[in-house]
Amino acid sequence: MSLYGALFTGVSSLSANSRALALTSNNISNINTVGYKASETQFSTLLAATRQSVNGFASGGVRPNQINLISSQGLLQSAENATSLAVSGNGFFPVTSDPATAPSVGELFYTRAGSFNQDANGFLRNAAGYYLQGWELDDTGAIPANRNQITAVNVSQLSGTAVATDSMDLRANLQASAVPPASYTAGDLAAGTTVPHFERALDVYDSQGGSQPLRLSFVKTGANAWAYEVIYDGPVANIGGAANNPIATGNLAFNTNGTLATVNGAATGNASVTVPWAASSGLAAQSITVNFGTPGAADGFTQFDSVSSLINASVNGALFGNITGVRVDEDGVVRAQFDNGIERSIFKVPLGTFQNPNGLGPVNGNAYQRTDQSGDVSLLEANTGGAGAIAPASLEASTVDLASEFTDLITTQRAYSAATRIITTSDEMLEEVTRIKR
Hints:
Layout: H1 3-29, E1 39-47, E2 60-68, E3 76-78, E4 85-88, E5 93-96, E6 109-111, E7 117-118, E8 124-125, E9 131-136, E10 151-152, E11 160-163, E12 167-173, H2 188-191, E13 198-205, E14 211-222, E15 225-232, E16 248-254, E17 260-263, E18 270-275, E19 286-291, E20 301-302, E21 309-315, E22 318-328, E23 333-338, E24 343-348, E25 351-353, E26 361-363, E27 367-369, E28 378-380, E29 389-392, E30 394-396, H3 402-436
Helix pairs in contact: 1-3
């Protein structure tokens, strides 16, 4: 080994430890960066020749290698923002720098920094300016057949929503001792020619968020037998005229023990009611399933000898409501919340998984991009196929261990100081060599 070789070995050590110091400094500076993954420096030998004789020696040096610990899990911390997201387990949020275009998979970046907030246009963007990508759900809540068809998540695309009534659950008692009228024909209750033994008014909701009044009237027609009419109490023009009222008629039969036996002659507890909205109303015909209870059970309509009364009525649907907030569940479903109590699923956030996540290439903004070392991305639903869970209203803390980093600072400083001694000693020896000629 020549003196010049020793000199260059010391220089390589200075360079390697300088790189290690820079990496440690970068880790420490990102100790509070959400979703940051710490890196470490591992050293390897660097020889001047690849083959040596048994007793030979060739000067060399040291080479620093940056190891990205991207797959490490950071501590999850709660956040006040409902759209702050963290990943518990494997996977990354797919993001892009431009929300205006639908990117291909090859144009995406991936991050664990889930501090997403709405921007002025309703897009979810994190602190680094990356926009969250997701699958846009159809009316049934299904994701696109093409899993690579993703777009920027926008939570302000809905101004409001309404849900039409399609089911009604009733619990009531009809007085067993009621005396049937001398005669009854379907439609007499709506016409007022027969006085009902019991009736109640209920509001249902149409497809445009309007409240519509219906009245259910009941009359006893015989032993354990009752007739019912569903009457529309709004402007009759909405249903095409008075001739369409009542909008539904039927009959109930009861067992001798007072429980429901049949509805319209069938041993089922349901009846279908169709509201025949006229074209002038702007509404399509609306079908509502009325549940009178379970035949043979006392969980719906009963016939006991007590005053007729409505015990409970449950009508689904909702009036028009404005959007009030957004939440994300553990499966990554983005749900818009409305002031009428309705929630609507609008997006589902996928997780990008890689065969070798530590091989991803870092980019500015605490994000990564696909490389040959990482392998191709798979966009998976959370909690499926090896993908982790999404923790809503949470953030993943940096994986930097401050105690470990300070220890690395000390050892790096000592190694750097030792390398300078190699250089100064080599310099002194070279100086002695130059004095030989004198």
